[in-house]
Design a protein that fits this description.
5 helices
Length: 98
């Protein structure tokens, strides 16, 4: 199920869900895994982590962003987590995706 594109953060979670379903551990897929249980509670089908032995998802996300963005990783990481929280709060209030 795709997130409603009108919700804040959907531009990150939509591609992340698709990547995760394809078994690709991109930054978007890792962001989805950060909130997997909350997304499932909202009705999203979130595939399991294809590499659960790799460690904490949050750290893996930060490392992925650092490899891609270098010194800007810290601000990108925090920005993506804020967008994720906005999405989760808005989806819970609006009842999305139900």
């Amino acid at each position: 199920m795709k997130p409603d594109p009108r919700l804040p953060g959907a531009e990150l979670l939509g591609p992340g869900l698709l990547d995760l379903a394809a078994g690709q551990l991109t930054a978007g897929a890792l962001l989805v895994l950060v909130a997997a249980s909350r997304l499932r509670a909202l009705g999203f089908e979130v595939p399991p982590d294809p590499d659960p032995e790799a460690g904490a998802v949050e750290l893996r996300l930060y490392r992925e962003l650092a490899a891609k963005h270098g010194d800007a990783a810290y601000s990108r990481y925090n920005s993506q987590l804020r967008r994720l929280q906005s999405f989760l709060k808005t989806a819970a209030v609006t009842g999305a995706p139900r």
